[in-house]
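Checked the freezer inventory, then went back to the computational side. Two predictions to log before the end of the day. The first one is the construct we discussed on Monday; recording sequence and tokens without edits.
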Amino acid sequence: MPPTRKQLMWIYTQLHSAYGPRNWWPAETEFEVVVGAILTQQAPWTNVEKAIINLKGRGLLDPSLLAKAETTLVETLVRPAGFYKVKSRRIIRIAESYGRIRAAYDLPINEARKELLSMEGVGPETCDSILLYAGNVPTFVIDAYTKRMAGRYGLAQDEDIDYHELKEMFENKLPRNERLFNEYHALIVELGKRHCKVKPECVNCPLEKRCKKKVKSGQRMKPSIGKPNILKTSAKARKRR
């Protein structure tokens, strides 16, 4: 049975109470978010930060300058993020296409996603990360942390749920608000880093009582659902519906 809005907002409230606001994405400019979204593919964020610092030190977090940069130089700078040959090519192409990316922020969401997904190296997760965190477009990001939480908490049958199926579940049940989507996804990431790891560390997990890996069959307790502070849907979000 699909979760209700109250159940999803209960999760949000529990995570927010435990971890506080995450203020994600850590970047000084929209373009830095876009570059980070490419570099973080199959890489831990600590390594991405090193590559970002390298690019910033050479003044290459400017799309016009990065687009003209020597590939060999960019490869050296992004090497800490792994797959440096592929990623250097991708961020240079992204810099060349940055005008298209910014223009996509003002399109209807489905059209914006289609535009970004047509670019080299931009898959669904990267696409939604760019739109949400750089463009403030209310589109929910799904990643390995989200799938793991959904499978363990019972929002999905297992962790192999389809990307778009899980994305639609969140978007159909929650208020379509970019601030809520931003904070919710960032909180799920924090949950995945602290507690809901591949090998879970469940002590003090804010969702422990409702986790299928912790509760014995027939003993699961229904959480008491209060009245979470649901963010009002922004005018921008309403316009995009």
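The second is the one RB wanted added to the comparison set:
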Amino acid sequence: MSQTEPETVPSAPTEKTEVPAGQRARPGILRRIVDWYTCRPAREAVRRAASAGRRELELLGRAKAAFNTGNLLRQPSDPSRKSLAGAHAAALYAESLTWALWSSRPSAPRLPPDELLLRDEPVTRELGLSEERAHELSQLLASPALAVELAERSEQEQSAAATLLKRAALVAIDVHERPQRAAAGITLLAFARVALTLLALALAVAGAVALRPQRANLAAGKPWKTSSSLFDCHPEQVECGGVKTRILFHTRDEQDPWFQYDLGTKTTFSSLRIENRQDGESDRAVPLVVEVGDDGEHFRQVARRDSEFSAWSPSFPAVTARYVRLRVPRRSMLHLEEVELYR
């Protein structure tokens, strides 16, 4: 045991040694309590499983860099470059997927990317692709000049290929980073256990405050619409456009995309809770303007957010209106997970 660890707990008695019960019960209980709060056994086990070498981390870093660059290419600032954006983004997603697959076997002989995918059971299992889609993905990975090949196809086919490769790369990175995230999460779990214990004590003292009724969401069950729709989203199934995500809607790439609630009658409210897309592309919702109106045609601004956010709860002096609209005042796509309204 290292010098920094606490004093050694007496060993369990053997058949030839008798230790009085009073001497062995208290240290054992204290040690178990300390181990539970610090997550020491779990932390040591996860640390052994997540002992990724420098090479594995380097390959995962390359995978994420290629993935992020692919995302940038799919949103070209110059419209004239859009015709090839999908092809080049697909090539970068394929490169990202290849790096992520290689990270699981950095010292083994390098196999072709499509063979690496077939041998990476955790990734293929999580992808859950149909036989047809799996074959399509393998063909894309096997192409020696993917960007050149896709450039001869239509923009729609380029976009479909890029979407498939993007999803596969995202899953591969997630699967191979999971042990490292778990190791980091153990420390957070230890802090959480301490925090939850303190919280439980606080709730016991302030039970009446903790049990007070929650505010009613005024937008619950109200009809809504968007400026356009790129995909049919199914947040209850965690899916939109073939991608695992909890977004409620997804507009097209357009000028001033918006989401609008019709409350049915004029309603008084003073705050909202807006949850941005959590799995990426959250910058598309910035800046975000909250507007209200009475006829669905004319609106006035009551709040604005100019910095990127995960969740935003704007509050403002109480207003009375029938319609509530969230709008991005620029060319963009808009996709959010939750929009709630409160008095």
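For RB: The chain has a mean pLDDT of 84. The longest helix spans residues 155-205. Let me know if you want it refolded.
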